[in-house]
Amino acid sequence: VKKRGRNNYLFYAREMNRHASRQLQVINALNMALLEDEFSLVFQPQVRIDNRQVVGAEVLVRWHSSELGMVSPGEFIPVAESAGLIKALDAWVFRHALAQIKQWLAMGVEDLVFAVNLSAASFEDQGLLSALMYELEQYDVPASCIELELTEAIALMDPDSVLKRIKSLRAAGFRVSIDDFGTGYSSMSYLKRFDVDKLKIDKSFIDDLASGEPEDVAIVKAMVQLAKALNIDSIAEGVETEQQWHSLAELGCDQVQGYWCAKPLPAKDFIAFLESWE
Ligand code: C2E
Ligand code: CA
Ligand code: CA
Ligand code: CA
């Protein structure tokens, strides 16, 4: 027993080392990626349930590292956050999203809202609003084309300053949504004070919807009702089946995003999608 305990310890120590060295590799490669433009953007459609109209898309980053190959955002976003690189990455994404939107506006693609993820560190930054406004002006894109996705992690900040920030972003014309709703720290009363435009119901709840268990349905129903009571839009993430779409329609959810409509698409495929979606 003793011997096995020691072997286990060695095993964990080795695993931890392996994990730490991979993290270091990712940090180094990320620094280079920001200089070398190794990132690209994909766009995942968001569709209204009642009239099936495409209302916009979420902008998601992809990284093809010359050293490490494809690295998923699920791996490198947390690393970028802990290494202090996330603000630079968010800025890269915002700028390149605007460059793409500018092209689409010139082509006559109108009335779409593009949702960009904003990490808590970017949200907290004193210079955020002026940096965003500067970029909008550079690319000649109106703020009304942009939705900023905030996570519930911002609930750890001082509530008054969160309130002020959200107010000033909305006053500047941005829409604001709460991402991964239900997985974080938000409380109901907090949500009421936030005053956002949209609630994104986390994929984990939508996955459970497929079970048909009354409890799982009740939870999603409660979230949709909450959004309605607060007079904000609800969108379900990670909708993969027609059955989920129908359940959400029945519950009165406003929009969906997920593989059932489309995977996150490169720019030209997104335009092809807009043309083929009826
Ligand atoms: P998220 O914001 O919750 O984004 C949704 C994730 O769910 C995306 O993963 C998307 O590809 C995936 N997804 C969408 N529909 C479906 C579906 O029907 N089935 C399944 N299985 N998955 C679906 P992705 O692109 O790998 O991104 C993972 C996370 O990384 C994002 O979660 C977000 O938190 C973060 N992230 C991605 N791009 C950015 C970015 O530009 N900036 C920041 N700060 N974070 C980002
Ligand atoms: Ca998101
Ligand atoms: Ca999300
Ligand atoms: Ca999610």
Automatic annotation (TrEMBL):
Residue ranges occupied by any EAL domain in the UniProt entry: 23-278
Transmembrane recorded as keyword: yes
Record key words, sorted: Membrane, Transmembrane, Transmembrane helix
Keyword Membrane: yes
Highest taxon in the source lineage: Bacteria
Descriptive protein name: EAL domain-containing protein
Covered residues, full protein: 825 to 1102 of 1102
